[in-house]
Amino acid sequence: VIRLNGKEVKGQRNLSEHVAAVWLTPQMDRIFTEGAAARRKFLDRLVFAYTPDHVTHLNRYDKNLRERLRLLTGMRTPDARWLETLETQIAGDAVSIAAARAHLLARLSHHLADLSRLQTLFPAPAVQLVCGIAGALENSPALALEQALAAQLARARAVDAAAGRTSIGTHRADFAVRYAAKDMPADQCSTGEQKGLLLSIVLAHALMMKAEKGFVPLLLLDEVAAHLDDDRRAQLFAHLQALGAQVWLTGTDAALFSALKDAAVFMVDGGHAYPRPSLLRETGPL
Questions:
Q1: H/E/C letters for each residue in the chain?
Q2: What are the residues whose beta carbons fall under 8 Å from the beta carbon of 159, sequence distance 6 or more?
Q3: pLDDT per residue as tens digits for the range 27-73
């Protein structure tokens, strides 16, 4: 049961207007060197925090993609009317998804510039959505683009049936990041630089949410402190404290968090969390 201001609410949508969560984990350190799917997932999480309706379009889009492929690959003569209905829905959601991603990155770029002006020690990223649909939206009305996309999907039925995948859509988009000062793609940067680029994106997103939505997402940063030098770690902590947000930092070395004298501290052991207020006065591995 979810209660908001004393009243029960149904569904994630209502809650998402007031709270969101963004996280970084060690597995995400490879996000710039892996396939585009991981980058899209990360981007969509940022978009969802900013535009809660985004997840509705994503879920319906994925469901309809699967249903269309099932019809194309599992039936000798699939129902043309049902395919047309699915393709119309896919096209509509694809345009909404592309528009939400593009808008988020436009706003994020503005706040990345603000963060850069603070003379942060973290690398400043340049972010871009690589997506033909988003590009077409710059010059075409959304409705006209939806109709054109639905027609393209109809023409691609034979190709998609043979390939067993959908050849057109926002599921083929990519989230491109460059280290602006070096004009270098993120996948060519060092591991430390890639980590810094991710942290810059998360910090700028938090600043954007605070300025434009009135709240900061709950942040979970898993093992980020271990990969930073003393100066960058101190600056990260200063940025996080200035946000006034609820931030969870995890690590295996208490000494890395010794500067956070006022933080609540917990020891996790055997799947349980125990308060350990004295832990930051201790040193060495946990």
A1: CEEECCEEECCHHHHHCCCCEEEECHHHHHCCCCCHHHHHHHHHHHHHHHCCCHHHHHHHHHHHHHHHHHHHHHCCCCCHHHHHHHHHHHHHHHHHHHHHHHHHHHHHHHHHHHHHHCCCCCCCEEEEEECHHHHHHCCCCHHHHHHHHHHHHHHCHHHHHHHCCCCCCHHHCEEEEEEHHHCEEHHHCCHHHHHHHHHHHHHHHHHHHHHHCCCCCEEEEECCHHHCCHHHHHHHHHHHHHHCCCEEEECCEHHHHCCCCCCCCEEEECCEEEECCCHHHCCCEC
A2: 167
A3: 998 999 999 999 999 999 999 999 999 999 999 999 999 999 999 99
- Residue 58's φ and ψ, nearest 5 degrees, are -60, -50
State pTM to two decimals.
0.90
Lookup: tokens for 229: 């030098």
Q: Where are the domains of the chain?
A: 2-251
Homologous superfamily of the 2-251 domain (CATH)? RecF/RecN/SMC, N-terminal domain (1.20.1050.90)
Roughly how many angstroms between the first and final C-alpha of the chain, as a whole number? 36
131 φ, ψ to 5°?
-160, 120
Per-residue model confidence as pLDDT tens digits over 234-259: 999 999 999 988 999 999 888 898 88
Question: CA–CA separation, 21 vs 32, rounded Å?
Answer: 21
